[in-house]
Amino acid sequence: MPRYFTRFILHASLGMLVCTVLSAQTELSQPSNSQTFAWNLVIALIVIIFTMASAALPIAAARQWKNAWSTAAKVPLFALGIWILVIIVGKLQSADSHNLWSFELFAWAMMNMVYMVTIMTIKRIIEKNVDPSTTKRN
User: Fold this and answer.
1) How far is it, in rounded angstroms, from Cα 118 to Cα 113?
2) What is the average per-residue pLDDT within 31-36?
3) CA atoms 18, 55, 53, 40: torsion sign
4) 96 phi and psi, to 5 degrees?
5) Long-range contacts made by residues 119-124, C-beta under 8 angstroms, separation at least 24?
């Protein structure tokens, strides 16, 4: 199942890049904004790289963990998929919507890291308390 998430995120990221290129081309008609296209492309690539890097942790955790922990690791990927769809649909409906989509995805990446560290810490605490071999004997 994580393979499908990875493919979806990759395709959605490429779709967002295309939307960025298309919206940047409308700004190229103005002579003072001739570098806007290049900057939008650089920012889009940086955000997509950071988003993919941040998505790697829940993908790896979903593959390693079992049962409810695997489901907990998939939650941020599900949220990312829905949010990417919202951004793409919004951009296709109006070029002026989601102008700060790069900040939206960067915020997801940061919240994802906080979420994953929290889940990993809780998992470690629970497993440490359940595992009898880790208890100290006096």
Assistant:
1) 8
2) 61
3) positive
4) -85, -10
5) 119/61, 119/69, 119/72, 119/73, 120/61, 123/65, 123/69
Q: What is the DSSP letter of 35?
A: T
| Residue-wise pLDDT tens digits, 101-114 | 888 888 999 999 99
Is residue 44's pLDDT more than 70?
yes
Which residue type, as a one-letter code, is found at position 39?
W
Q: How far is CA 107 from CA 28, 104, 113, 130, in A?
A: 28, 5, 10, 35
Rounded Cα distance, 106 and 45, in Å: 12
Q: Distance between CA 79 and CA 108 in Å, rounded?
A: 9
Q: How confident is the model at residue 131 (pLDDT cuts 50, 70, 90)?
A: low
Structure pTM?
0.67
